[in-house]
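Memo subject: From amino acid sequence to discrete backbone structure tokens
Action wanted: Derive the backbone structure tokens from the amino acid sequence.
How to read it: Take the token row as a discrete description of the fold.
Attached in line: The record itself begins immediately under this heading.
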Amino acid sequence: MSTSAETRIARAPIVGAAAPRKEGVDKLLGRARYVDDIQREGMWPGATVRSTIPRGFIRSIEFDRRIDWSEFTIVTAADIPGKNHVQLIHTDQPCLADGMVNHCDEAIVLLAHPDKHKLREAMAAVNIEYEPLPPVFTIEESERQETIVWGSDNLLKSFLLEKGDVDAEWACAAHIVEGEYRTGAQEHLYIENNGVIAEWSEESGATVWGSLQCPYYVHKSLLAVFDLPEDKVRVIQTETGGAFGGKEDYPSTLAAHAALLAMKSGHAIKMVYDRMEDLAATTKRHPSRVRHRTAVDKQGKLIAMDIEVATDGGAYSTLSSTVLSRATLHSPGAYVCPNVRVRSHAWATNTVPYGAFRGFGAPQAIFAIERHMDEIASVLGIDPIELRRRNFLHDGDTTATEQVMRDPVILDKLLDRALQESDYHAKRARFARENPHSAVKRGMGVSAFFHGSGFTGSGERYLNSLAGLDVIPEGNVRVLVANTEFGQGTNTILTQIAAEAIGIDYDDVIMAPADTSIVPNSGPTVASRTSMVVGRLIERAGRQLVAMLRDQAGLGEHFTSEEFFAACERHRAAQGEVVSLCRYEAPPNIYWDDQKYRGEAYPAYAWSVQVAQVAVDTVTYSAEVEDIWSVQEVGRVLNPILAGGQIEGGIAQGIGYALYEKVVWQNGHMANNQMTNYIMPTAEDVPPIHVFFEEIPFQHGAFGAKGIGELPHDGPAPAILNAIRDATGVGFRSIPLLPEDLFAQLAAREIVAEAAAL
């Protein structure tokens, strides 16, 4: 407990300060315990036997007689006591394949043995005979519906968003510009692979420790697999080494596998994937194809946008419907247009299911619209900066869902600062002079964009999140949330908010374990919602706690930490506990019509403008990002160090998305499932990143905060490719853009130019 004698009013602000990470010292000193550091008595390792074909019937499973199988625990779909499905939005994905497989590396058999070396030998001795069926690997193949691999039509989800009358505008348009833009799959590449430990007892049911984002997602899925009541499943997050969305949905599958082995073996089971298995078997970012047809008037104003969004959802639906929804809503970009139509579809294929990834559909959509804006500018013969200015959303404008922009929109200010900080105009002019005389061509590119904070539409109302605080006898306030720390700063931000709301010192507040037997369901750690939505619940709970202690325990108007905790003990003596919980309350004027797909899509938006400077070597056909500037408005910045780190990390990941990270599929299997051949940016590939904030507090977020974590990933790819267009004069329309892709178009242009000169 703090011995500070400062009063609540005199204490220096905690929110807005660079408070040190709550878990930072433990990580620095090696005290943090990740799932593979944890040992349980009598624990066995578990392993998974996976499919080797992309689609087909399972005709037989044979176990090599040279192995003494009596030493092993073997689990198949027949051993599942409840429902054989992973409980996400839909229930089409089996926990273990039963009679049929729909993608390579699908789990069929689970094994456990006390000796991990014998376990590896046994995995190779399980022989599965298949009857192959024709697979589907691309969006186009799935669209044709010549082979049906999911449902009756391969269609996982579709949306139709309409505003105005698009078809009435084509005849009066001064220009109609069309373009198709593609993005590839992207692997999360968290530092720590997926891993869980599970125990089983008839008395207490299933207990799981794991590297995960969403304890209650895993809890819900285990209830279905084991047909258990809620009090017989306990899920505990261990220290988690990165996630980026990759530990939102997949841990539900892995936790069920480990718990099934634990139930049958009578031993605690640890399952930790190696890098090759993690890359091959787990979810990735959805590949996409976005087509734009845009009508523009003589002044360069957008008058109609017809957009088709298609995503590859993989073999099962997982979270594809919500990813598609966010992609749909972000596809018109941060621009005013009176007539908009977006038709979007998520298609099933026979690859691993695609799932959650930072940005959640927005990076795909924003890549397309921001590249398309530069193509429109080229057709019109105007500066891409000017085209954006003429069409930016402003206060009072309406989005494609007819949501009125009631909060300030300062895109012009963000753009002005980004151009100033990057010296955009002077550099662009200089590069235009120098490029004809150099093999290295330089260029400048811009992206301007928004990201909706929180769940889409009515999602937050549906979640009905509960969060709060309690005070323990040891003299600490605990934050009670199911939201998890995996490097992004949840522990630090939420304890800052609690300390500020109550008026005590930061060191007096700790996090309760993310354990479903201790903390309420405050919703998942996704969708840039933790600071804004859950943080607001903690702020309310802190103020509610102070009011309760004033009313019931004699706490004064001004108080020291000692006086606060003394009041807590008086309340405990009278009531038995000191707890303050708050339920989510939607901000006023936030209404979403799920049937019409119209209304307030998000309670708030974060905004950003990014400028990229690139160099393209026309000898080696390599592109390098030399500098990036990012200016954003994310409401109030709660912790400037953590906020800056989120922007830098998101941009680094966006650079990989744009120029390096390509998933190579061979007959439905990820062929480059090692870090030696799945290439990501190294420290040498990440340029100086210049981060600037403009703060406009959001009245319904925690101390004015909005979402921040996903925003910075949305903009780098289009800014980089727009810069490459500026440098080379070629508008590339798909990512990742690798040297061979640069060579194919730049060399072809040179050949055409040489032929024309003859």
